[in-house]
């Protein structure tokens, strides 16, 4: 089988992803991923972490994680401790080694030394883990659980903001005036209308009897009328305007009010 590090690196390059993307997927620091690809086992915090990181990295790349872990154990773990005694790999094969006496294998002195060895290994691994944890606190991103919680809070905030935008849009839609002006008298009627943005939506148009504007929509209209011979409606609702046959009249129309404008505030449609 090819070298473990070469297998990982080639699989990553075939997939077209970089170390930073693998780090984001696996939550394994980039320096440890590079150590796996370079087979710099001494840079990793113990064999237990090596196998765990190797398994996670291989699965992220779609490789046979079990096969790579077994390859690592075969090449780089000379001894294993099991319930039946100490097993040593010799010349690439596993062989059982026990004490021999004059009449065959002797009984082992006891399991107490093995327990002590296991406890010692566990203590060393715990110490290495604590040191690595302290080193990573200032640099390493939050753990997956914390990141998930933060993502959940962000999604909730986004949903709340979206709901607030939809509420404001509904409110704004409910305040839209749908204005139409129709001439009702035989005398031609001059009409000038500006919307909430100040745009001249009816630019000094003269309406003949029976003619009307299209439906205009805005949150506010300023309307100047040359004679009272018109009918103003908001949707199906008729707006009541007072007649003034001698002067131009002007109104500000919103959903909440119909306000007469003084002469200085009348909309102008002159170029």
Description:
- This protein has 2 domains: 1-81 and 116-138, 434 Repressor (Amino-terminal Domain), CATH 1.10.260; 177-265.
- Helix content is 41%, strand content 24%.
- With 271 residues, the protein is of the alpha+beta class.
- The protein has a 5-stranded antiparallel beta sheet with strand order 8-7-10-13-14, with no helix packed on it.
- Helix 4 (47-60) packs antiparallel against helix 5.
Overall CATH class of the largest domain: Mainly Alpha
CATH superfamily of the largest domain: lambda repressor-like DNA-binding domains
Helices and strands, in N-to-C order? HHHHHEEEEEHHEEEEEEEEE
Please give the count of helices. Answer: 7
The SS-based structural class is alpha+beta
Q: What is the molecular shape?
A: rod-shaped
Q: Which regions have little confidence, pLDDT < 50, spanning 5+ residues?
A: 80-88, 90-109
- Helix share, percent: 40-55%
- Approximately how much beta-strand content do the residues carry? 15-25%
* Overall pLDDT: 80
* Total number of distinct structural domains: 2
Radius of gyration in whole Å, from Cα?
42 Å
Strand order of the largest sheet: 8-7-10-13-14
Count of beta strands:
14
Question: Which architecture of the largest domain does the CATH hierarchy give at level 2?
Answer: Orthogonal Bundle
CATH topology of the largest domain: 434 Repressor (Amino-terminal Domain)
Intertermini distance:
85 Å
The biggest beta sheet, please?
5 strands, antiparallel
